[in-house]
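Self-study notes.
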Amino acid sequence: MASSTQQKSLHRSRSSHHSSTSTRSNKTEIRINVYDLLPPGKLSTTLWHLGFPLLHTGLVITSLNHEYAFGGHSIPSQTGVYYIQPGREDPQIVTFRLSYFCGISHLPTRDLHAVIAEVSKGFLGPSYNLLTNNCNHFTSKLCEALTGERAPGWMNRAAGIGVCVPCFVPRGWMGVEEEEEEGEEERRGLVGKKKKNGEEVVGLRDKVLGGAELAVARRKEEGRVVRDEDGRVLPESETTPLLGMVR
């Protein structure tokens, strides 16, 4: 018969083995799927290589087979966080760019859901802001909560530029007050069309952001418009599909 000391040693060995096995079984990759808001073409390629593309991101938790993202809506006190199957964002709305490896989480499934729920509380649909509280801010926050590391800064660089240089925010995403300022911007050559040597010349911002504006214009015609907390019209990729909302 084994002594009391031997039994305790055997119990500790089994517990250690169980803990090690449990940790390995809970291992899950955390990735960020990156999408371009602009349609494929020279413009989106140029902005990508210059380092300030207009991006949408979602955080993938492989063990759950879910991709979590944040969008805007008008329901009070309700999170704007939702999930889809990884990589299943509508190709008619966004263009997949890459999947970025963030790290490994060893949390069990129950704890993963608890972290997601806790982070989601800070991202309510009506609080969505294209420049200061967007899908990329959420992705970075959830990534940090699960891996200890934030998302790379380049994923949200365009929003930072938009805060400093508002004229580069697509006109179709602007609120009423901002639309009233378009006359001055057109006089400065930022928007609209002008005549040069008898030919129409597209303003700088129209040229850079025309694809995004056209998409918003189509949604306005169809009556499917959602605005952020500052009154900007959200592109469809930045609105919450209500059926996939985190509860």
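Second protein, same conventions, sequence then structure:
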Amino acid sequence: MSAITARKSVAHQTDDMTSTSSSTSNSISASPEDTPRQSPSTTSLSSLDSNSELELKAGSGKLLDTYGNEFHLPDFTIKQIRDAIPAHCFERSGAKGLGYVARDLASLALTFYLFHNYVTLENISSTPARAALWTVYTFVQGLFGTGLWVLAHECGHQSFSPSKTLNDTVGWFCHSALLVPYFSWKISHGKHHKATGHLERDMVFVPKTRDEYASKMGYYVHELSELMEETPIATAGNMIGQQLVGWLLYLTANVTGHNHHERQSEGRGKGKTNGFGGGVNHFDPSSPLFEKKDGKLILLSDLGLIIMGTVLFLIGKNFGWANLAVWYFVPYLWVNHWLVAITFLQHTDPTLPHYEAQTWSFARGAAATIDREFGFIGRQLLHGIIETHVLHHFVSTIPFYNADEATEAIKPIMGQHYRSNVEGGSIGFLKSMWNSARMCQWIEACEGAEGENKGVLFFRNHNGLGVPPQKMSPLTEPQAAKNEE
């Protein structure tokens, strides 16, 4: 996957940053099919089209991403994207999908067999050597487990096979084995795909606005541009916390998801907010993440967790809790780590815009993602989920083994709006985590933006990196009181 680096050097840039690549051809003129109509089912993950035109005020003012690159709103349509993809890329094979599941399960089983039978006191007398080898075991099993997670993700998008029954059966078994509530995740994840980049509706890694970030940090909005740099150790601490418990916090408290639940169409979100005890989670059928009709599916997801929890309890009781921790729970934490890292970097980058409601469209939101490169691990063990994510947000029913070809097909249509950061391969992927954590602290509108451009927000930070945040005047007391209300 080749791309041309599009980053420009800007003032106040004091840290090393990984470059972000994009193709450079111009985007195609717009047609009426730009915004999707809502699918009859909130769980449908198929790509969406519409014949209605965007009705937005013309924007003015220069839009600059965090690196200082000028940004123009995408003007291609979903129909143009779909028409560019060869028809055979949409073909799904249940046999091929099951073959990959069998491969990943066999890899997990064989790895356990080899370590359980050969990395023993009888064969390796050195305790440090055994400990080192079992540490390798947890890492390798974490990769194989993440691969299985990705295949269940394919099932949730109905890209695993043409059979919905087969997809949901395989997805439920695989995700339950990884302590993931399959249908609950599938429903909320489907809503993420329908509202990617929408600040009031997106379901995952919704960035904080300037107001929200200032409130969290205990400052006034105008003071952010004057703050000193966040210490690297603070950044590292935040990253470690995110990678250790981010996925669990998302499931139990909807952390990083939107917090506008009062708008839920059935009134289920009244008085409910993100956070522990706020009534927003992936286990309760009454959660505003779901509709009433989803209740049985949420309970079926919970049943899968109960069954797997029982199996794990019996293993721990009969074979020892320390063994269970090494055999299952440390690899489980590795799976969670990779899942959070992948999702974070798919939707958090100094080049990516986010949109307020009046400026958002499905095509614009789908383009607000980025492909990266993770070498053999990403392409073989993790089934390309890192390398072909942009295509996945436009047409989520294309199976992963056809996604590379489909990605190449849509690049000419997307033009400068196709984003990839492939420099450095696997090492570059890991460096991007630090770069995004340092540069992407909150989002705000660009200085001088008006009309629909005012609804396009980019990341800014107080670390002296990239385009500096806007300087604002202190609020008067009446204004401050009004904002607090």
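Instructor comment on the second fold: The two ends are 49 Å apart (CA to CA).
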